[in-house]
Specification:
The protein has 17 helices and two strands. With 456 residues, the protein is mainly α. It has a single domain, classed as MFS general substrate transporter like domains (Growth Hormone, Chain: A, Up-down Bundle), CATH 1.20.1250.20. Strands 1-2 form a two-stranded antiparallel sheet. α2 packs parallel to α4, α2 runs antiparallel to α16 and α3 packs antiparallel against α4. It is globular. The two termini are 21 Å apart. It comes from Bifidobacterium actinocoloniiforme DSM 22766. It is found in: Cell membrane. GO terms for molecular function: glucose 6-phosphate:phosphate antiporter activity.
């Protein structure tokens, strides 16, 4: 790994005890803004392809299956990259790791607007997926380093809305670009988001920090020790780095945990529903429901924006009322999602469909946020990236790949009803996985390693 991507060492000078609280507050604000804006930038240069897809069909003659195949390239490469980059992120500095992936993604997105070749776009999507995999694992690592478990649901939920800010902002960004440059310059759908994401990458570098220890502060579990009075604290939760190798960390703390496998499967089913709805909103509403492209873009944005307050509320409730027990809430949300999806499938009214899309945004991103929180809860600090990457691998290889190419190909041959049937079945299977995970939450303790782990 390049030297600038490696973890920052513990600071030689410790922050005086009387100033720790103030410094923690200052750095937590900065770190949160850096990972929030950074990950929103990742989605700005990723979700714009869905908004551009009707233009690709109109101007380049792409079919629905072509769009699905190009999107599949992102899903597969991103899934593999999230796994590999996730493991590497355990040995990285999130500040520079996130910024590097975002800068590379933005430059690749610029090239999309310069080609009409399906083959080139597939290659670009593969490369895009590789660099996109640097975002979430490193952000999860920062959340684990700077926020304690009993407050983490609220902060993970707020961070998780960066998906929605990024994807939801694409529609107004595209609207502005088309208004400013004209419909004939529809390739600005790629150019303008790239410039915005480059600016966000610079902000990540300016605002971000590695671990609390790297800036002279104590680990988060020591800083929040009062919240754990009377409870046994798992020593591995205090450790931000390990001298175990990446494969050793993965085998001992990820692959050997059966509940992480179930969590990975649940993520796959949630992703089938998420992208099975989201990726196809512009084309489905335009072709099957008769919406204009402008109406379809607005509906696409609703899916993202409605999830922001909903996701934050769900995360806060998981901390406040359920004391960090998140799997049962996720199962209930998936059940509600299935009901709303059936309504979306059958509706023809513009207003009804918009309401259903908004509700689906809440009930999709709610479980996804809870999966992120569960991922962090079930792993020690030094294995957060590996766990995130493994769970994400299932989400994209089996989840988004099915939602993109699988549903796209099925719709092209047999119509929307067959494709939407996959989404309905996935919602049911997701409920089953979350119910299994309710048992895992009774045993969140991760065994502290006997050797090979070092504390900062």
């Amino acid at each position: 790994m390049f030297a600038f991507l490696k973890p920052a060492p513990p600071a030689a000078n410790k922050v005086p005890a009387g100033k720790v609280a103030g410094k923690y507050r200052q750095y937590r604000i900065r770190v949160f803004l850096s990972i929030y804006l950074g990950y929103a930038g990742y989605y700005i240069v990723r979700s714009n392809f869905s908004v551009a897809s009707p233009y690709l069909k109109k101007n380049y003659g792409f079919t629905t299956a072509d769009i699905g195949l190009i999107t599949l390239c992102l899903a597969v490469s991103y899934g593999i990259s999230k796994f590999v980059m996730g493991m590497l992120s355990d040995k990285s500095n999130p500040r520079f790791y996130i910024a590097t992936g975002l800068l590379a993604s933005a430059f690749l997105n610029l090239i999309f607007g310069a080609t009409a070749s399906k083959g080139v776009m597939m290659l670009l999507m593969v490369l895009m997926g590789i660099f996109q995999g640097m975002g979430a694992p490193a952000a999860h690592k920062s959340l684990s380093n700077w926020w304690a478990e009993k407050e983490r649901g609220s902060f993970v939920s707020m961070w998780n809305t960066s998906h929605n800010l990024g994807s939801g902002t694409v529609a107004p960004i595209v609207g502005f670009a088309l208004a400013a440059f004209g419909p004939h310059m529809w390739k600005s759908i790629f150019f303008v988001p790239s410039v915005i994401s480059i600016i966000m990458a610079v902000l990540v570098i300016v605002l971000g920090a590695d671990t609390p220890e790297s800036v002279g502060l104590p680990p988060i579990q020591e800083f929040k020790a009062d919240e754990y009075k009377g409870e046994k604290i798992d020593k591995s939760k205090l450790q931000s780095h390990s001298d175990l190798s990446i494969p050793q960390i993965f085998i001992r703390y990820v692959a050997s945990n059966p509940y992480i496998w179930v969590l990975a499967l649940s993520n796959a089913f949630v992703y089938i529903v998420r992208y099975g709805v989201l990726n196809w909103i512009p084309i489905y509403l335009n072709e099957a429901k008769g919406f204009s492209l402008a109406q379809a873009r607005s509906s696409f944005a609703l899916f993202e924006y409605a999830a922001i307050p909903g996701t934050i509320l769900i995360g806060w409730m998981s901390d406040k009322f359920f004391h960090g027990k998140r799997a049962g809430i996720a199962a209930a949300l998936m059940a509600l999602l299935g009901v709303i999806f059936l309504g979306y499938w059958a509706s023809s009214s513009l207003w009804a469909i918009d309401i259903e899309i908004a509700l689906m945004g809440i009930f999709v991103y709610g479980p996804q946020m809870l999966i992120a929180a569960l991922t962090i809860d079930l792993a020690p600090r030094f294995a957060i990236g590996s766990t995130t990457g493994f769970v994400g691998l299932f989400g994209y290889i089996f989840g988004e790949a099915t939602a993109s190419y699988g549903i796209g190909a099925l719709v092209g041959k047999n119509g929307w009803d067959k494709g939407f049937g996959i989404i309905a079945i996935s919602a049911v299977l997701g409920i089953v996985c979350f119910l299994i995970l309710t048992r895992a939450e009774r045993y969140k303790k991760v065994e502290a390693p006997e050797a090979g782990v070092v504390e900062d």
